[in-house]
Amino acid sequence: MSASVTVDLTLTVDAEADAVFSIAPAVGWVVEEDLTLTGGDTPIAYREVLDAHGGRLHRATLPVGTVRLAYRAEVTSPECPAPSDEADAVRYLRPSRYAPSDELAEKATELFGSTPARELVRRVPAWVFEHLEYVPGSSGPADTALDTLRAREGVCRDYAHLTIGLLRAAGVPARLASAYAPGLSPMDFHAVVEAFVEGRWEVVDATRLAPRPHLVRIATGRDAADTAFLTTLSGATTLDDVEVTAVAHGALTADDHSRAVLLR
């Protein structure tokens, strides 16, 4: 699988900011890329920092004023999935900020009982898909899987957090992956789930808005706290605009979300 991906992002910086961007595809994906960061007409220096599972972060000190980021890349899927260590099956069973699985245990038991792991990987995202409504703008940045369960609506990260929380509560390690998603509508960064079953991480997407075989991994972690495309560590920034594109080279593969798919 190969694709072209782009990001154009504009920020207003009100106080000099230490910022981290997570917009570049993970290690092994990129064939050719270009990233420019400017404040006014002046280039801003940045440095790349490696994150978990091949993630690539770009960190910079942003000056006061208008800052623009432009990213372009040609990508192709690597031969092997992202590396994983033996602690992952433990790490991704633990509750996390946006996926408090300990507080979802009763609901998971009510819905899925003692369902085997292989069946849970199918049934949990199917339940989330059937019981949530995709509503842009319906959730806030602090909403957790519990808020989504109560509201029964949200966007991709909300679908992912609820899927992760229910899977973990039922005993299946689960993590969030941010991705470029050719075929996604409306186009944006996308959030999907990887579930650990039968010794490997399989990708599921409860929104069913994009074909999984074409996903391009960006970042991987416990939840959106680990995978946000922009993190302001200090200072003050306002996101004015972000435009994302992801276009597959060739026809999109049909995906009925019933078969196992690995996110490379």
Q: Your description of this structure?
A:
It is a single chain. The protein has 264 residues and is of the alpha+beta class. The protein folds into two domains: 2-78 and 228-248, Sandwich (Immunoglobulin-like), CATH 2.60.40.2250; 88-227, C8orf32 fold (Roll), CATH 3.10.620.30. It has helices spanning 88-91, 105-112, 117-131, 145-151, 156-169, 224-227, and strands spanning 2-24, 30-39, 42-43, 47-50, 56-62, 65-76, 133-134, 153-154, 174-180, 190-197, 200-204, 216-221, 230-248. The strands form three sheets. Strands 1, 2, 3, 4, 5, 6 and 13 form a seven-stranded antiparallel sheet that branches. Helix 4 crosses helix 5 (156-169).
Using the coordinates above, name the CATH class of the largest domain: Alpha Beta
Reading the helices and strands in chain order gives EEEEEEHHHEHEHEEEEHE
Between the first and last Cα atoms, what is the distance in angstroms? 10 Å
Low-confidence stretches: none
Oligomer: single chain
How many domains? The number is 2
Percent strand: 35-45%
Q: What are the main properties of this structure?
A:
7-stranded antiparallel sheet; single chain; 4-stranded antiparallel sheet; 2 domains; Immunoglobulin-like; 6 helices; C8orf32 fold; alpha+beta; 13 strands; 264 residues
